[in-house]
Design goal:
The chain has about 80 residues and is mainly alpha-helical. It has four helices and no strands.
C-alpha cells in the first residue's frame, strides 16, 4: 500500500530492538518511544497478526457457536491454518 510508510515502521521497530539491546548505534530515543506509545504503536509485528486472527476467531465463534475451525474452512483459510 504505502511502501515508504511500511519501511519507516519497520525501521522504527528495528531501532527499538537495538535500543532495548543496548546498542549505541540505535537512533531510537525514549522520547520517540513515548510519542509512538501515545499513538498505540505496535512494536511487535507478530502481535498484529495474532490479534487479527484472534478477532477473526471470535467472529467465527459468534457465527458458529464454537472455535473448532476446520482445516477446509473456505471462508477464512488463514484462520484455519492459524
Amino acid at each position: 500500500e504505502n511502501q515508504h510508510l511500511a519501511r519507516w515502521v519497520k525501521r522504527q521497530r528495528r531501532q527499538y530492538k537495538l535500543m532495548l539491546g543496548g546498542q549505541i548505534s540505535s537512533t531510537m530515543t525514549q522520547e520517540r518511544v513515548n510519542i509512538l506509545n501515545t499513538e498505540c504503536f505496535t512494536w511487535d509485528s507478530h502481535d498484529i497478526i495474532w490479534r487479527e486472527r484472534f478477532n477473526q476467531l471470535l467472529q467465527y465463534k459468534n457465527l458458529h457457536g464454537h472455535t473448532r475451525v476446520p482445516s477446509y474452512c473456505t471462508d477464512n483459510p488463514r484462520l484455519a491454518s492459524w
